[in-house]
Design a protein that fits this description.
three-stranded antiparallel sheet, alpha+beta
């Protein structure tokens, strides 16, 4: 089971920004599952493989994303996975930055089968 927590925070007097984190839970026990455990590759490889699948080839952006990456950046949706970097975490970006990846062959190849959302209807 997957949850998205979204909080709107003030940036200055006139604007704000959204802070988003993803959390995975074991449906049977209710225990939290580390988002990095959703992947069949090693925890150290997750962000590099995601950036490769997303075709992020800007060296500066890749370094910033790798440095800022945390497990809670991973947000699981029924039809895609999003990697969300909050406002201010990537020095080269003025605002928050997200990568959306559909469940294509490349992404499915690095996810455990049980981690891919299934239609329960």
């Amino acid at each position: 089971m997957y949850f998205l927590t979204s909080v709107n925070l003030p940036k200055n007097h006139n604007t704000g920004y959204e802070y988003r984190i993803g959390t995975a839970f074991d449906r049977e026990t209710g225990e939290i599952i580390d988002n990095l455990e959703l992947f069949s590759c090693s925890k150290d490889e997750v962000i590099e493989k995601i950036l490769d699948i997303a075709d992020i080839d800007d060296i500066t952006l890749r370094k910033e994303m790798t440095a800022a990456f945390k497990a809670e950046c991973i947000i699981v949706f029924p039809d895609h996975i999003e990697i969300h970097f909050a406002d201010g975490t990537l020095p080269s970006q003025e605002h928050s930055y997200s990568i959306g990846l559909d469940y294509n062959d490349a992404l499915i190849s690095i996810l455990h089968d049980w981690a891919i959302p299934q239609d329960r209807c």
